[in-house]
Amino acid sequence: MQDDKTFLDTNILVYAYDNTAGQKHEIANRIVSDLWSSGLGVLSTQVLQEFFVSVTTKIPRPMDIRTAKEIISDLLTWNIVVIDGQSVLNGVDIQVKYRYSFWDSLIIEAALKADSPLLLTEDLSDGQVIRSVTVRNPFREM
After folding, report:
1. Has residue 89 got a pLDDT over 80?
2. Domain residues of the chain, as ranges?
3. What is the pLDDT of residues 26-71, one digit of tens each?
4. What is the reported pTM?
5. CATH topology of domain 6-136
């Protein structure tokens, strides 16, 4: 793990808490543990919302709401980017320019807003640089 802030997309965070995700769970769990130790993890309100829905309804063994809420409460100690009105407008611009989905464009916007040079996700083009953010897929070697 490097010494710069690292923005996590929802999928990485979900895999870290989904014991049924196999090797992706192991890799994501290691990433999240490293970010807890370093204090360099960055999330957005969008990621926290998506995380809650995913871990309580979409994974093979959903967690109970209380547990998910406790995890989110702990994650609030990380650097959290609030998705505000200007972020939405900037996300639209990113969508138009890079042709990503609106939701993925908001993730990119949040990483930019946080001055995070690294965005970990499996949903975008590995190695792509969008302004000052480099996209990395931590599962690419699987």
Report:
1. yes
2. 6-136
3. 999 999 999 999 999 999 999 999 999 999 999 999 999 999 999 9
4. 0.94
5. Rossmann fold (3.40.50)
